[in-house]
Amino acid sequence: MSLLDLFLIPVSPVASFVIAGLLLIVLQCIRSPKLKGITKIVALLGPLGSLLATWNLFKSQPLAYSLVTAGSYEAWLNEFILSYHLDSTTMIWYWAIGAIASISFIFVEAYFKDLEELPEILILLEFIAAAMMLLVSANNLLMVFMALELMSLPTYVLVGVEREKHFGAEASLKYFLFGSFATVLLLFSIALLYAYTGTLQFSQISNFLMVPVGGTNPAGIMVMAASALFIIAVGFKLGLAPFHMWLPDAYEGAATPITGFMGSAIKLAGFGMALRLWWGMLAPISAHWVAILGSLSVVTMFVGNLGALRQRNLKRLFAYSSISHAGYLVLGLISISKTGTQLDTQNLFYYLVVYGFMFLGVFGILGLIEKQTGSTDISTFEGIGFSHPLLGACLAILVLSAAGIPPTAGFLGKYLLFADAVRTGHVWLVVLAVLSSVIGVFYYLRVLVALYMTEPSQRIILSSQSRIVVWSVIACAFCMIFFSFFPQRLGI
Questions:
Q1: How far apart are CA 275 and CA 287, in angstroms?
Q2: Nearest Cα to 82, choosing from 71, 96, 98?
Q3: CA-CA-CA-CA dihedral for 456, 462, 466, 472, to nearest 10
Q4: What is the pLDDT of residues 399-432, one digit of tens each?
Q5: Helix (H, G, I), strand (E, B) or coil at 313
Q6: How many CB atoms lie within 10 A of CB 39?
Q7: Three-state DSSP class for 344?
Q8: Could you tell me the CA-to-CA distances from 40 to 272, 366, 382, 474 in Å, in that order?
Q9: Does residue 332 contact residue 420 with C-beta atoms inside 8 Å?
Q10: 266, 276, 329, 341: which has the fewest C-beta neighbours closer than 10 Å?
Q11: What are the tens digits of pLDDT across the range 171-207?
């Protein structure tokens, strides 16, 4: 196989975002008024080009790269082949990241269209998206660390990008400090595993861990410590309780479309990383961490749903909702089963995609309303169901999906995750998850009451330039119905 087949084509979905980001940097350096209108087009070339490259991979060589073995190529290419895991499952995650990123870019461009720093924001988003794709395809701890930091550092900046909002700067600083602490723990856990195994490759580490660990022997203690540190570090990135302290403030302080991107695409990539780490690397010692993650999932569900009950700001309400959904997703993560040597991740992936489009659609609507009113308080949305029937209907569908009400895709997603958990013996965790979901229905219904059962406190007029955002929101709401009746479109 040639260099084209071994390197250029496999990384083409990632390269699409990187090339778009570099082109935006060049355009920003030129600073010609004639090129100003091209910026938005170039920005969208990143996600659209990535989707096209992923489709090409599916059609041309869906499994060819996963069968390649290192050893007969140059040193750097051998290392790349060992570090980059590309199979049909990875490409499905690529598709989801590309699709969610495409809509996110539309929301960001519409929200910041009058801001001089728009090109810089789009550049950061391009590199974050590239990092997310590297993260879900990583097969090496060094690549995980590099991709995670490439994703995290620009996100810290984007949270505080609205410099006139002091709360955004505070949220950005808090996110950065907590994120730095989590990064240190991640590095320490990587160092412990490397000291024990002498390698950074997932498959080789997994082979080392086939030997029983635990007890009082130093090697066993080292592996257990590394596993615990991974849970804390990754738990922070996923927003699991009690490592969630940064999340409500960061989600509220960030610009609304940035929050939508963080809660959908970044969470999708985060769980892709968790899947690689725990089931690709630490699977031989799953008995040690499944129980811990199960307990964290229950705590996360209740912390998220109980925390959301008292919120009136919808950005903060859906931030706590995001925490509760992370709990459900962790329950799905520990309930993954194997068919032969293949992990059955379809139900987890289905829930992540449905949740991603749901969260993105909600924050698309919040961004539209906030742009006109300057507020995302629940009172601002009173009567929207009648004054703007289309937006009201979309928000209602998205909220019902978040609550897990049939016949939305959110209901089917929860059902599939809970069914997997029961099948793998986590019955009591499912009982607690259902009780937590019942609590969550209350605050979701408050949003519907504001939409349709409360007189509007002010009249909101949307500009004609918001049409592309409205159509994107409609697409997200449509997904909640479409994927409910046609789940096979997501591989179910």
A1: 16
A2: 71
A3: 20
A4: 999 998 988 999 999 999 999 899 988 899 999 9
A5: strand
A6: 18
A7: strand
A8: 29, 22, 33, 21
A9: yes
A10: 341
A11: 888 899 988 999 999 999 999 888 888 888 888 888 8
